[in-house]
Design goal:
The protein has three helices and twelve strands, in the order ββαββββββββαβαβ. It has 167 residues and is of the alpha+beta class. It has a single domain (18-166), classed as Jelly Rolls (Sandwich). The protein is globular. The chain starts with 17 loop residues before the first strand and ends in an 8-residue tail after the last strand.
């Protein structure tokens, strides 16, 4: 993970690829290629009713800082409402979790992952979009979940059915 590029990296507003991932819009501000694999920073826009399926990632630590709006972070043990200026950390080997926007306003969050790599999964799963653009939330059919699981596994992620926490 040694960063052999010792020069400053600056990213202007709206720079970096944007992709639609399950109806959310993720902009990769900086990824592992720029940080020597140390971390990635992703700007996430989560529309009403948006958010990923339940998932886990033993080899990544994931942290969220809520810039605007509100998300619910859900595990088997707890439901945490993260509003503007809140911070949530999912540690290495953390619980199965998901986050969802249950409000009628788009949530804006920064997602920090260490080490980098999760952003590559987003780029592979997602569909390229212009910054701040949303695609409809797709139906999570068994075939679509299987496709997403196959890609996620390549990046150390495990995906669970959408109704995982209802069981």
């Amino acid at each position: 993970m040694e960063n052999i590029n010792n020069s400053l990296t600056a990213v202007a507003a709206q720079e970096g690829p944007s992709v639609s991932v399950v109806g959310d819009t993720y902009r990769i501000i900086i990824g592992g290629e720029q940080t020597g694999g140390a971390y990635a920073l992703v700007d996430m826009l989560i529309p009403p009713k948006g958010g990923p399926v339940p998932h886990s990632h033993a080899t990544f630590q994931e942290a969220f800082y809520i810039i605007d709006g509100e998300i619910k972070v859900i595990t088997r043990e707890k439901v945490y409402t993260a509003a503007k200026d809140s911070y949530v950390n999912i540690p290495f080997n953390g619980p199965v979790h998901k986050f969802t926007n249950k409000t009628d306003k788009t949530a804006h969050i920064l997602c920090f992952t260490t080490p980098a790599g999760m952003e590559k999964m987003f780029l592979e799963i997602g569909k390229p979009v212009a910054a701040n653009t949303f695609l409809p939330i797709p139906q999570m059919t068994p075939d679509e979940l299987k496709r997403l699981q196959s890609i996620a596994e390549k990046y150390g992620q495990k995906l669970y059915p959408p109704d995982y926490f209802d069981q």
